[in-house]
Design goal:
Distance between the termini: 27 Å
CATH class: Mainly Alpha
Structural class: mainly alpha
Order of helices and strands: HHHHHHHHHHHHHHHHHHH
CATH topology: Growth Hormone, Chain: A
Number of strands: 0
Shape: globular
Strand content: under 5%
Radius of gyration: 23 Å
Length: about 500
């Protein structure tokens, strides 16, 4: 924890809270000695975790829902006349999509370094206000150049949220508790897809108000909603356990002690460039990046082009907007279900590869349907398989460095590095669904299928790499406990550290 995070002596509430499923507690119960230590505080661990979950997860989940909504609503806007009004020719629309990810990739690592040097309460809402402003301005652009500039800066502003929140969770939860929370947080992307279709359908009825077509209102209303929520986020985003106002002094000490049992979250690590460079020198961090890279292309091509894919099957714009909702709802269910089972069994690679194979079935269906206009229902079923596999594979891939990278600065950089490498896949993906390729979109669907097969392969390589490394370290020294209390901790390079796979 940085030196400016001093405890505040403010009492927190211990009132009962609704249940949130805690896969970690069932899968990895504390030892009897830990239980004795925890009992000394007079605090119920489950109740406190629920309290933390309810304070943290809805807050950052709402921000990510808005982020995903503001980046992907361009697909809904296209159906409502965006390309026609801005006189886009050929594949200029795809160039605008690409520019978003160029800005996103360039600024992810700098954004996480800023987060490390400031605070979540300042940085996350500030980013949200910035992209809310840019998203709103997309609704008033008058030409292609304005569209390009706005998409680039939308990517810049949104780049710091996801890697920042993944690092943020690592400062609150034990290692085995992070995966389910990250997956729950990421599931907001699937909800954004569902809400985006419903909102676009409703906002579409505003066509004729000020502007002939309704696409401008999609950007304006959703962007303004983001700004309003972001202002409130300065009050409902908390920093770290040592300064969180909703915790009592006893709860802060309790959290610090439980975190110190298996992570470096309680270390007072100051930022140094040498610690930041450790992530770039670690081959495993590059593999984590490839795990996301191979899901990023299918994730964003699906999110950005689903309205186009469905519309090309012969449905009207209004019906298209509604038909985008069910596949995302299915993805939300599969993401949480797979994350829960994966957490309980303490297995990641198996479920990443399995989810990727499930999504491959969807693209195989889409590619094999030679008459999409005559049999649109077959292709539509394929979108369910694609969504149901892509989202859980992505969520689990994104949780890996948060669990396995030790060293606060290294982990912050590794999280951002993973998403930067990953979103290079999205840059490529934005150029694959070209005008004139529908309704089968053979090139785009084939690339997505190939990338998902590569994702299963990368997950297998990581599984073997981490398992072999653990075996090598077991021959050297036993696994360390109480990492937070070690003064000689060197991070995950230490042979006493064990990786989870």
């Amino acid at each position: 924890m940085s030196a400016d995070h001093k405890p505040k002596a403010e009492p927190g509430s211990d009132s009962p809270l609704p249940d949130i499923k805690d896969a970690r507690l069932d899968a990895d119960p504390v030892s009897s000695s830990e239980q004795e230590d925890l009992a000394a505080y007079g605090i119920n661990e489950r109740t406190l975790l629920r309290k933390i979950d309810w304070r943290l997860l809805p807050a950052v989940g709402i921000l990510y829902l808005l982020s995903f909504l503001d980046r992907s609503n361009v697909g809904n806007a296209r159906i409502e006349g965006l390309a026609t009004d801005l006189h886009m020719t050929g594949n200029q629309y795809l160039t605008g999509l690409t520019l978003y990810f160029v800005g996103y990739v360039i600024f992810e690592i700098p954004c996480n370094i800023i987060l490390k040097r400031t605070t979540p309460r300042f940085w996350l809402p500030t980013l949200t206000i910035l992209w809310g402003i840019v998203a709103t301005l997309l609704g008033v652009v008058q030409n292609l150049a304005g569209f390009f500039v706005a998409r680039f800066f939308l990517g810049v502003a949104e780049s710091g949220l996801f890697p920042g929140v993944v690092y943020y969770f690592s400062m609150w939860y034990k290692r085995r508790e992070r995966q389910f929370r990250i997956s729950l947080f990421f599931s907001a992307a699937a909800l954004a897809g569902s809400f985006g279709g419903i909102l676009a359908y409703g906002i579409g009825f505003m066509r004729g108000i000020v502007w002939e077509k309704g696409w401008r209102w999609i950007f304006i209303l959703e962007g303004l909603a983001t700004i309003v929520v972001a202002v409130g986020a300065y009050f409902f985003i908390y920093n770290y356990p040592d300064t969180a106002e909703f915790l009592s002094d006893k709860e802060r000490k309790f959290i610090r002690d439980r975190l110190s049992s298996d992570s470096d979250a309680t270390h007072d690590e100051t930022f140094t460039w040498s610690n930041a460079l450790k992530a770039f020198k670690d081959p495993k961090c590059w593999l984590y990046g490839m795990a996301f890279h191979t899901t990023s292309l299918p994730l964003y091509t699906f999110s950005l082009f689903l309205p186009t894919i469905i519309n090309s099957l012969g449905y009207s714009p209004a019906i298209t907007q509604l038909l985008t909702v069910p596949p995302y709802a299915f993805a939300f269910i599969t993401t949480l279900s797979v994350a829960t089972i994966s957490e309980r069994l303490n297995q990641r690679a198996l479920f990443i590869a399995g989810s990727a194979l499930f999504a491959i079935i969807g693209y195989a269906v889409l590619l094999s349907n030679k008459d999409p206009l005559g049999r649109p229902g077959v292709s539509y079923v394929g979108t369910f398989f694609a969504a149901g596999g892509i989202f859980p594979a992505t969520a689990l891939s994104l949780s890996w460095p948060a669990i396995n990278v030790s060293g606060q600065t290294k982990r912050a950089v590794a999280n951002a590095m993973q998403i930067s490498i990953g979103n290079l896949g999205a840059v490529l993906g934005t150029q694959l669904y070209r005008s004139g390729d529908g309704p089968r979109f053979i090139v785009g669907h084939s690339f997505a299928l190939g990338y998902l097969a590569a994702n299963a392969a990368v997950a297998s390589v990581l599984y073997l790499t981490l398992k072999r490394e653990n075996k090598r370290r077991e021959a050297i020294t036993p696994e360390v406990q109480d990492i937070g209390n070690l003064v000689d901790w060197a991070g995950d390079e230490d042979p006493r550290w064990r990786f989870q796979y």
